[in-house]
Each structure stands twice: as structure tokens, then as C-alpha cells.
Model the fold of this input.
Amino acid sequence: MKWKESYVLGIAPMDATHQEFVDQVTALAAVADEAAILLMERFIAHTEAHFAQENQWMKASGFPPIHCHVGEHQRVIASLKSVLSMARRGKPGLTREMARDMESWFENHAATMDAALAAHLRHVQQIPGIC
Ligand SMILES: [Fe+2]
Ligand SMILES: [Fe+2]
Done:
């Protein structure tokens, strides 16, 4: 998965987290079966922190569609955890399929829900890392 300029949303800590997300998805798309579970565990931990940070920004700034965005985060974490449990039960190759699904998911999520959050943070002037 290649980083694209269109992924830059102008909120520095969000953009940095998204770059790490893209790096981890790229690694997972080509992971060897033996390393799949470990990488998947790290990816879930990273994604939980990523989503928790955005959820906290939404709450602190009064982001109107907070429930929609938080709900989407919850669905993704639940599906990542189910892939991990299937990988642990002898299907490590599912992590590579999941990584390909995550590419299109991220493309859409960044352009819609995260872009809306970034615009809202700028609008209310609650820009993390700046003030
Ligand atoms: Fe995000
Ligand atoms: Fe998000």
C-alpha cells in the first residue's frame, strides 16, 4: 500500500498515525505465515490507539457525527480481532487478505470520516499538537 498525498489531512499527529497505519498494512499484506500473528497483534494495538485518539478528539471538540465515526472504529476493531482469532486457529493467510481489505477501507475512511474530523478540528480551532 503506497502513501498518497491525498491522505494528508493537515492535522500532524493524525497524519503521522496514518502513515504508521499504512506502513503496517503494507507489511501485513506480504507477511509470512510464521510472523502473521505477531504482526497482527501489533497492528491491532496500534489501531486501537489510533482510534482511541480520534475518539477522544471527537469527544473533546464536540464533533457532531461522533457516534457514526466511533461505531465504524468499533466495527473495524471487532473484525480485526476475529481475523486474529482465526489466524491463531490455523489460518494465518487471512491476515494478508485482511490487509488488502484495509487498503480500500482506509482510502474511504480517511477521505470521509477522518477528513470530516480534521476539518471540524480546524473549524473549532482545537488542533492537536498546536494548541
Ligand atoms: Fe484515522
Ligand atoms: Fe477514524
Observations:
- The pocket of fe (ii) ion (ligand 1) is lined by residues 18, 50, 54, 114 (CB under 6 Å).
- The mean pLDDT is 95.
- The radius of gyration is 15 Å.
